[in-house]
Amino acid sequence: MREQLAGDLIKTSNEEQRREGIIATGYLATARRFGSRNNEFHLTIEDTIDNVGKAFLGLSVSCARCHDHKFDPIPTRDYYSLYGIFNSTKYAFPGTEVFRHTKDFVALGPPQAAAELASWEKQLADLDEEYEEIDRQRIRGKLTQQESDAKRAGVRAKIEFIERRPAAAAATKAYAVSEGTPGDSRIQHKGDPKNVGAMAPRGFLTIMGGAKLPPEEKGSGRRELAQWIATARNPLTARVMVNRIWEYHFGKGIVATPNDFGARGERPTHPELLDYLADQFVRSGWSVKAMHRMIMLSRAYQMSSDNNAADALKDAQDHFLWHFPRRRLEAEEIRDSMLAFGGALDTSMAEAHPFPPEYEWRYTQHKQFFAVYPTNHRSVYLMQQRMRKQPFLEVFDGPDPNATTPVRGAGATALQALYLMNDAFVHEQADLLAVRVGVALGSDADRIQRAFALVYGRAATPAEVAEGLRYLRDAAAELKATAIPEDGRRRAALSSYMHVLLSSDEFLFVD
After folding, report:
1. In whole angstroms, how far apart are CA 48 and each of 57, 67, 162, 484?
2. 161 in helix, strand or coil?
3. Considering the entire predicted model, what is its pTM?
4. pLDDT for position 89
5. Could you tell me the CA-to-CA distances from 484 to 317, 438, 478, 488 in Å, in that order?
6. Residues 6+ apart with CB under 8 A from 476
7. Is 341 exposed, middle or buried (0-12, 13-18, 19+ CB in 10 A)?
8. Are strands 89-91 and 185-188 parallel, antiparallel or unpaired?
């Protein structure tokens, strides 16, 4: 958390840690942008505060932007105390249709690299402005169309020349944040930056202690904010995190509204348990792995998901965890499992996506950048865009890439069934699984048992083995009417059977 909020300001012992700290602040840099000239920056800060508040504190802090929070003890002054911290921060500018070149990226190289990168970006920014000024002069009648075209062509040639000869620092730059011009901000009445009032000194939420920046602090205040949030004295941060970990295992958090621990959020079903887990989390050194271990070794996690009519009458929502709540696998789990079953999953760390070179970018409002890069790496490495969701993740309720997603949907839709039936990816993984069990074992019965062990994590019953053998026999008979060569029909039949297993409820749901 400290690195995501202030990784560029934390003291490090080596160059690798320094680079990682800078890159971590990309969490802040990815806040949404508004306006073709980045002239709606107050909305970018609002998005930052909204995400930081919900993700780390479980509070809808941004509701206090226009007025005191209607339900939680967060006055507007507190919002602008945080606003001042992020307004004192410089965000990497990704470029727009009008000014398409990047700006304020952070160099990852040696100290002199920052100056080289800034100089290179400034040259392009100045040429972007010159290019637009020529067009403005044409609109005002100061230049003819022919004169405008000639001048614009000259500027465009200069831009392309500089684009193709970037400073060495431009090759190792991060979409991150850095220190801007530090200063407090004034309260914006009704959230209007043109209607300001009293000054709000930079600091933390009053309800969380209301600490202010010390007078000797000359920076933005992000380092102090990181300390205020990521401290054992903060009563919310540890609870919010362990609640999320619990949610990932059980499908529902102890607080069912992970982004809202405020008055409008759900009350915790087991407040003492939440407090205990938060305390253990802090005592373990904020170890996520230790928290996973504690939860997964608990009786609650190891219980069966079988239903009990008498208990269901007393607690239909399973608030008291009398059985394990059945849940569908998340999108990433489904994809990674399919790849793993056939032996195709690449567990190594993925490299950068094969984006086109920066000097080729010509994206506009009507000609946007869309891409899907096939890979066998784990789903955490899939490229995700805000303009269009990654196809697999979209089908299986992946998160909204535009905002913090407290709880994912887990609906069963016809589109999911059709995807599992028809998509080439599923067919390919079923075939790889068929090859894996087919080569390793000599009999169809053993192959069925091995497939059940891989896909379901259990042995097949005698009835299931008999049913599988009938399926393979019938499928092989039907395949005689196809163009598949005779020596490939057994593999095709086994692949079809594996396809059935990968499309089943037992694979898709955790029991």
Report:
1. 13, 18, 33, 57
2. helix
3. 0.90
4. 97
5. 51, 18, 11, 6
6. 489, 490, 493
7. buried
8. unpaired
Q: Which two tokens stand for residue 361?
A: 């970018």
Calpha distance 280→455 (Å, rounded): 34
pLDDT at position 115, please?
A: 87
Report the 10 Å Cβ neighbour count for 176. Answer: 25
Q: What is the mean pLDDT of each run of 10 residues along the chain (511 residues)?
A: 96 92 96 81 95 96 95 96 97 86 89 87 91 91 93 93 78 92 96 95 95 93 96 95 95 95 95 97 97 96 91 91 90 97 96 87 84 95 90 92 86 92 96 95 95 96 97 94 90 96 94 80
- Kindly give, in sequence order, each residue whose CB lies less than 8 Å from that of residue 186, ignoring residues fewer than 6 positions away: 80, 196, 197, 198, 199, 200
**Spatial separation of the C-alpha atoms in residues 509 and 396, rounded to whole Å:** 13
Closest CA to 319 of 244, 254, 262, 246: 254
Token match 């998509």: residue?
423
Residue 43 tokens read as: 């909305």
Convert 51-81 to b/e letters by CB count within 10 Å (16 or more is b). Answer: bbbbbbbbbbbbbbbeeebeebebbbbbbbb
Return left, alpha or beta for 141; rule: phi > 0 is left, psi -120 to 50 is alpha, else beta: left
Q: In angstroms, rounded to a whole number, what is the distance separating the alpha carbons of residues 509 and 511?
A: 6
- Mean pLDDT score of the chain, rounded to an integer? 93
Residue-by-residue DSSP string for 200-266 = E-SB--GGGT--B--TT--S-SHHHHHHHHSSTT-TTHHHHHHHHHHHHHHSS-SSS-TT--STTSP
Q: Could you give the CA distance from residue 475 to residue 442 in angstroms, rounded to a whole number?
A: 19
pLDDT at res. 169:
65
Tokens of 310: 């008498």
Dist CA 50 CA 54 (whole Å): 6
Residue with tokens 């403005």: 136
Q: Which residue carries 């070794």 as its tokens?
A: 297
Element (H, E) at 170: none
Q: What is the DSSP letter of 103?
A: B
The CA radius of gyration of the chain, in Å to the nearest whole number, is 28
Task: For residue 305, count other CB atoms closer than 10 A to its CB.
Answer: 13
Calculate the dihedral angle through the C-alpha atoms of 272, 275, 281, 284, rounding to the nearest 10 degrees.
Answer: -80
Q: Residue 109: CB partners within 8 Å, gap ≥ 6?
A: 168, 169, 172
Q: Give 196's strand partners.
A: 188
Measured distance between the N- and C-terminal CA atoms of the chain, rounded to whole angstroms = 33
pLDDT (tens digit per residue) in 271-286: 999 999 999 999 999 9
Cα distances (angstroms) measured from residue 292 to each of 2, 104, 150, 301: 21, 39, 64, 11
Q: Which amino acid is located at 288 in the chain?
A: V
Please name which of 10, 433, 436, 371 lies closest in space to residue 222, comparing C-alpha atoms: 10
**In the structure encoding, which two tokens stand for residue 478, read together?**
């039907």
